[in-house]
Design brief:
Low-confidence stretches: 4-32
Strand content: 15-25%
Structural class: alpha+beta
Oligomer: single chain
Order of helices and strands: EHHEEEEEEEHHHHHHEEHHEEHHEEHH
Shape: globular
Distance between the termini: 38 Å
Helix content: 40-55%
Radius of gyration: 21 Å
Largest sheet: 6 strands, antiparallel
Amino acid sequence: MKSLFHPLLFMVFLLLCTSCRDKPISDESSEEQLEKTQVYEMFLINVNDLRVRSAPGQKSEVTDKLKEGMLVHGSGNVSELTDIITLRNVTYDEPYHMVQYDGKEGWVYGGAILCLYRGSKEAPFTSRIMEAAGQMRLAANEGKIESGGKILSVLSQFKGSEPEWNDALFMLGTYYMSHLEVTLAMDDSMKGLYETSDLRDEIAQGTLDMEQSEVLRRLKINGFKLTTAEGDVYPTYDRNTLTSAINGPFTLGMEQAIRLRNRNETMHLFSDGGITTDLVNIADMAISLEKLSKNHPLLPLSEWVDSSLDFYLNVILNGTDNSPSVNYESGKYRSEFISMWEYYLTTHPHSAIAGEIKERLKK
């Protein structure tokens, strides 16, 4: 699920990483592989009275409405059209998905559904996932710091031995914890408890002690920590704590995707529109994402993988606002980007952007 993030949610987006136990990359693209594969999907409805439409788009006929907490199924049919819609204080830019339910079918907005399963066979678990989702939803709707601890407790209670089941629990936990952190970030009554210049400096330096005050201890034991973006301080859920609450096993692709997300958060690759790490780290992240996308195209997190890959490939080619690949005074590519492109081609010669990089290196 792709959303347009404020600074906090941008950090959530870049929750986004692993040395991968990858199979050799096929010459076929993931799209070509998917065309030969029957896709089975399971989605959870995350808003009440979700409109089912006869075609993608807000102007198409409404044929039905679905209740929050329902499970629906899909087969990988996604619209090219996207719409920007705000749901529960989060703005999404999402396509529409064709779904099936109760012998019916129709198009629903992607920002209002959560993928729990995507694979080449039917989901091996049952509607019991609705019970776990219901308990997490109730906790998140309380909007308190302690709600995070309740969500983590549900994850620990429901975790199992089947990888696909744990994948679905991870998706639920991520969804409800991320929405809870938005609620906490927007609570003005809490900001004075942790938004100080001293804390900002400690977070930036990686020296923050979450035991130094009662509110920080409450955040920590309930699965949160503090982060900064554009000078503001936000509570954000601790990805490692959430993952540990389930503790696997996950499917191989999801395990790799989860590690990539967690690694990305700890590497501090970007700050204030600039690149703050060696460009080789950016290249390695893109290589891992590209391999993951090709080797495991059917994941509950595949939309995240693909959107993150697009983001990193764009950074590799063009840089960022404050770290562009071009020296605007000379009009030439910066030497550090040229070195990174040479590394990228050597390490990953079959990349989707290999041709573009070769053309740039000729100039």
